[in-house]
Amino acid sequence: GGRDGLGAYISKPETFPPSVVVYYNDDFVTIHDMFPKSSLHLLLLPRDPTKTRLHPFEAFEDPEFLAKVKAEVQKLRHLAASELRRLYGKDSAQEQARQAALTAESPPDDLPPGREWEQEIMCGVHAVPSMSHLHVHVISVDRYSERLKHRKHYNSFATPFFVPIGDFPLKPEDVRRHPTREGYLKRDFVCWRCGRGFGNRFAELKTHLEEEFIEWKKA
Ligand code: 5GP
Ligand code: ZN
Q1: Of all helices (H) and strands (E), which one includes residue 164?
Q2: How many other C-beta atoms lie within 10 A of the C-beta of residue 122?
Q3: Using CA atoms, how far apart are residues 23 and 161, in angstroms rounded to an integer?
Q4: pLDDT of amino acid 125
Q5: Do 26 and 34 touch, CB atoms closer than 8 A?
Q6: In a 3-state reduction of DSSP, which class is residue 93?
Q7: Which domains does the chain possess?
Q8: Ligand 1 mutation pick, 19, 34, 151, max ligand atoms within 8 A of CB
Q9: Ligand with the closest atom to the CA of 209
Q10: 135 catalytic, yes or no?
Q11: How far is CA 161 from the centre of its chain?
Q12: How far apart are CA 132 and CA 55, in angstroms?
């Protein structure tokens, strides 16, 4: 438990059910976040014992390791996207049109393409992780979850406190190296989808996030 709670998944992934450990191999373990901050929230845990205790900014300074993590994140982004497609996509008008296009003999080329769910997934790390084992969040953009209960929960995924894996390696002068000085977690709330400001009104934000979730699912 506590800050070391992710260690057990890394050392003994085979002891967890598929509802917890999504998959594992020699180099990585992918799990469901126990306190998801979006409708889909996975964690990628690299198993390399020389990296797992490092801060992500330091771990990702090794270009070979970073490339390996990025490749695995890419796989996981596709897996997460297919899960969103399964959850929200299959009955949408767009998906139906796409299905029709796949089977029609000479489909018109102006049919809408299927929704690109890969773009609805964020992959990255927190500038100040709370858990000590190296982990990459793979999380849908909705921030719609009963477990999103505190100001910092929202802002840690909705400000530069969240550093996308694609932004690594970080430049030495990157301001995100100073997350406390920048005050990311204390910022006023801004809706991730429409950009509306909510000041420090968390309850209002939560109500709005539900409305946005409903629209986002069917968009
Ligand atoms: P951090 O803020 O360190 O980047 O995120 C750590 C994540 O680990 C959080 O999203 C938190 O919900 C998740 N977490 C904390 N403890 C456990 C645990 O014991 N099991 C699982 N599966 N996730 C956990
Ligand atoms: Zn909004």
Answers
A1: strand 162-164
A2: 21
A3: 27
A4: 98
A5: no
A6: helix
A7: 2-218 (3.30.428.10)
A8: 34
A9: 2
A10: yes
A11: 13
A12: 8
